[in-house]
């Protein structure tokens, strides 16, 4: 997995073991308060597997964490080498087999912007704010040929209300998590019940490649095995580069969110004094998505990010820190944990 940009963290290992034990009706001898394998189990695991070692967390300066053109070039070269070593170069040349998946939050009550009022009035103007000041997480996956995998909306429910199920398009998916954000369980559900069935029903040649943000909480052994069995190659984008290398961020989500804010204002004007809620979110989002996530916009995102065609010279390096300036950045530590 390291060659594809996914270092294995202690958290990944613990959660993968917990899931394995639950699936097989077993319980480890050493559990902590959160009912996961604890410190004693982990120390025993390292003793039993001497070929594995845990490296200490490094404290990186902002200069080292900042992304430069050289960093991106090395990432492209490493990914190219991986596909070449495994005789998979044809995937990177096929837009129907190249995907990008991304999650983003959409506010139920976006910022209102400027409003109009009487010139001589000294009173301030206020927007009525929805009682539900929250955002809904949207998981979207696009292919380099401009197609869209039906969306998944993630809500903070234990049991999904029937009204929400009935409010979204039939082919969209729903996910549940305590926080309302994507986590490893929801990502597994998305891959197993949504993305993989989509590529199968669309008769897309496998294996395919799916470029994702390498958030460590999303990847588990179960997800990795699921992808391997079903011909999905997960590739982690270079950390801190989603605004440069993520097609969805580069071209789709910015106009999409601007369109969402405009659609919310329009809906509230037409339905005054009602507010946008979780129950009306899906129906409004569908109208905006169909308008802004066009094949042309999606293809442009893949091209400008260098993901398709897979070409490092297509990347917009103006968003990078110039190599010559990196030593002049102020110090700022960030956590960067590597294990092998």
From TrEMBL:
Instruction: Please give the InterPro entries that the UniProt record associates with this protein.
Output: CenT-Element_Derived, DDE_SF_endonuclease_dom, RNaseH_sf
The record places domain DDE-1 at: 133-266
Q: What's a GO cellular component annotated to this UniProt protein?
A: nucleus
- Entry GO MF terms: DNA binding
Q: Which residues cross the membrane?
A: none
Q: What domain of life does the UniProt record list for this protein's source?
A: Eukaryota
Q: Which residues form a coiled coil?
A: none
This chain belongs to which protein, by name?
Answer: DDE-1 domain-containing protein
Q: What's the source species for this entry? A: Zophobas morio
- Lineage, please? Eukaryota, Metazoa, Ecdysozoa, Arthropoda, Hexapoda
